[in-house]
Design goal:
By secondary structure, the chain is an alpha+beta fold. It is 50% helix and 14% strand. Strands 1-2-3-4 form a 4-stranded mixed sheet. The radius of gyration is 15 Å and the shape is globular.
């Protein structure tokens, strides 16, 4: 049981650091309920993960919103990111340029959903650095 909890924490930390590694704003992907309500124009039209409280590690639930509408609620950061990428596909929303590197990484590396679009250089570099370790 402890292994599952540690594994979930490691997965959550990795997902929360991914936008930063690719030089994108974490707040475009996941933000507190207070930030979402006061900065809704930043994410209008794009799916976003919203958590309650000051930090996502203390939140029990994560809501995924699209165009200001709550789509669903999940109980982990990993599931929330999975649903975030799913919303872009199901709702047929193009990746915004401020989110394209992280979403492409999630799509191609985590979900393993390939397409004919070339990987951005930042993703190739990140994968190269990960594989070098």
């Amino acid at each position: 049981m402890i292994f599952i909890v540690v594994s979930e924490i490691v997965r959550s930390v990795a997902l929360l650091h991914l936008p930063g590694l690719l030089r994108e704003k974490l707040e475009l992907f996941i933000c507190s309920e207070q930030h979402y309500e006061t900065n809704a124009e930043e994410t209008t039209g794009n799916p976003v993960i919203v958590f309650q409280g000051a930090n996502p590690f203390e939140s029990a639930n994560f809501d995924v919103y699209a165009d200001g509408i709550k789509i669903l609620t999940v109980d982990s950061i990993a599931k929330a990111f999975e649903m975030l990428i799913t919303c872009f596909f199901v709702l047929n929303i193009a990746y915004p340029k401020d989110m394209v590197k992280t979403l492409t990484f999630l799509q191609k590396v985590i979900v393993n959903l390939q397409d004919k679009i070339k990987n951005p250089k930042a993703i190739v570099t990140l994968l190269s650095n990960i594989n070098r370790q």
